[in-house]
Amino acid sequence: MISNASPSVPTVQPGSFLTLHYRLAGPSGDVINTFGDKPATLSLGAGELSPAMEQRLLGLPEGTRTTFELPAGEAFGERNPDMQQWVARRLLAELGDPDEQYTLGDVVQFPTPDGTGSYAGVVLEVRDDGAVRFDFNPIHYNDAIAERVGLPGVLAHGMLTMGLAVETIVEWLGDSGRILEYGVRFTRPVVVDTDAGADVQVVAKVGAVDDDALRIDLTVSHEGTTVLGKAQVRVRAAS
Asked: I need a labelling partner for 197 at 20 to 30 A (CA). Which of 47, 130, 141, 144 fits?
């Protein structure tokens, strides 16, 4: 690892928008590996990576290639039965679409109290009064955990899907720094087959144009089902 950076070389800071290749692996092998394809894009502090992973990226100079290991439980936390909780329908309506219908296995993104990040919960049960029981334990890296909560296997992290979707326009833009704002609503999970992986289709179109920016609308689907709702990217117009 490079520990001392030249003043002229940018380093990773809180809030940095990164374009990088990375490999995430566990005892059974790779979970995510972007080195065979296009690099990933993500924003630090937006909840796309766990805090432990983000801490290890902070301060790294541009161009660094490094490896680090996280002890069991540090990356995503140990499984905690207290993290299965009921959320009232009223609160769900305040945080999202009041007309949303929740079903077993739906992955729902919640904002952190300070509004700077997010975390995900999986629907386990829906009551007649509309309250929903969520499992907020990690489900994105372990088949056993995923199956234990009634899912068919590991889910691609919603933030990973979000990052992969926006990558489709980065090459067209020519500069990821032109991205001013990016938002999505997580509507359905992407189940990753252990052997075959998962295919995600992305269709991008220009939805609006003003004097200094464009709004690009993304349609993101997996096996014919939309997995990201209201996926919109605001980009600076080319000079």
From this structure: 47
Q: Which CATH number fits domain 81-148: 3.20.20.140, 3.40.50.720, 2.40.10.330, 2.60.40.10?
A: 2.40.10.330
Q: By the 8 A CB rule, do 171 and 38 touch?
A: yes
Torsion of CA 208, 213, 214, 220, to 10 degrees: -120
Residue 214 has pLDDT above 70, yes or no: yes
User: Residue 111 corresponds to which tokens in the numbers above?
Assistant: 């904002």
Distance of CA 22 to the CA centre of its chain: 14
Q: Is 45 exposed, middle or buried (0-12, 13-18, 19+ CB in 10 A)?
A: middle
Distance between CA atoms of residues 25 and 75, nearest Å: 11
Instruction: For the beta carbon of residue 184, count every other beta carbon within 10 angstroms.
Output: 21
Structure tokens at 161: 């899907």
pLDDT digit string (tens) for 141-187? 455 555 554 555 566 666 677 777 888 888 788 887 888 888 877 77
| Residues sharing a CB contact under 8 Å with residue 137, sequence separation 6 or more, in sequence order | 77, 79, 80, 83, 84, 145, 149
**Residue 44's pLDDT band (boundaries 50, 70, 90)?**
confident
On whether the CB atoms of residues 164 and 34 are closer than 8 A, the answer is no
Better pLDDT: 138 or 71: 71
